[in-house]
Amino acid sequence: MLIVHSTYVLYNIVPLGFLILLVYIFINVFLDYFRKVKKSNKKRVILYSFIFYLISLIQIKFGGFTLPQNPADNSSSFISTNDWFGIFDTMHFNISIWSYSALFYNVILFVPFGISLLLLFNLKSNKKAISIVILSCSGIYFAGLLFGETGVVMRNNGNTDIIYLLFNILGGILGIFLVKYAVSFIRSYKLNLQVK
């Protein structure tokens, strides 16, 4: 039996995504001089932050992308490109192993997703926001399975993936309720100031 072992390079998508985002910001700001209706700077900053968050989230959840792997490999190893975005590799490792801190990280990882949903898209219905979080988390999970089978990302064969998916959903829902609570607190605070 022929033993085939290959080493693959994992590419970090954050630097390229960051550069594309900077170009998008530059073009958007440049075109704003010619628009009659100007966009809110607050919405713009939230949108840019959300796009960078999504790029980082994909990198953290998948651990990097590689060229499709040879199906004849009996074993394969991965090396990552050493750059200053190496923190994403560390975060991917920390959320992939079974530990209580990994559960905590998987919750915290999706809290900004729930917050951004409500701030960007002004969703009034909790059911709609929660269903978007569930569909998005499930989509990321199934994309990871699909990309893992095709060899584009590292395959996670852990039994904990479903548990992490549930904690990701919990984090997104927590973000939704944090925004709802913060908005109601700010409104009641403003009403109390007006009454006095």
Distance between the termini: 84 Å
N-to-C SSE series?
EHHEHHHH
Shape: globular
For this entry, what is the oligomeric state of its chains?
single chain
Give the fraction of residues assigned to helices: 55-70%
Which residues sit in consecutive blocks of at least 5 with pLDDT less than 50? none
Radius of gyration: 20 Å
Please identify the structural class as seen in this structure: mainly alpha
Order of neighbouring strands in the sheet with most strands: 1-2
Mean pLDDT: 81
Q: Total number of β-strand segments?
A: 2
Beta-strand fraction estimate: 5-15%
Summarize the structure.
This protein has 196 residues and is mainly α. 68% of the residues lie in helices and 6% in strands. It is built from six helices and two strands, in the order E-H-H-E-H-H-H-H.
Outline the structure in words.
The termini are far apart. This protein has 196 residues and is mainly alpha-helical. It contains six helices and two strands; from the N terminus they run E-H-H-E-H-H-H-H. A two-stranded parallel sheet has the order 1-2. Helix 2 (41-62) packs across helix 3 (87-96), helix 2 (41-62) runs antiparallel to helix 4 and helix 4 (100-121) packs across helix 6.
Please describe the topology of this protein.
Elements: E1 5-10, H1 14-32, H2 41-62, E2 75-80, H3 87-96, H4 100-121, H5 126-150, H6 161-195
Parallel strand pairs: 1-2
Helix pairs in contact: 1-2, 2-3, 2-4, 4-6, 5-6
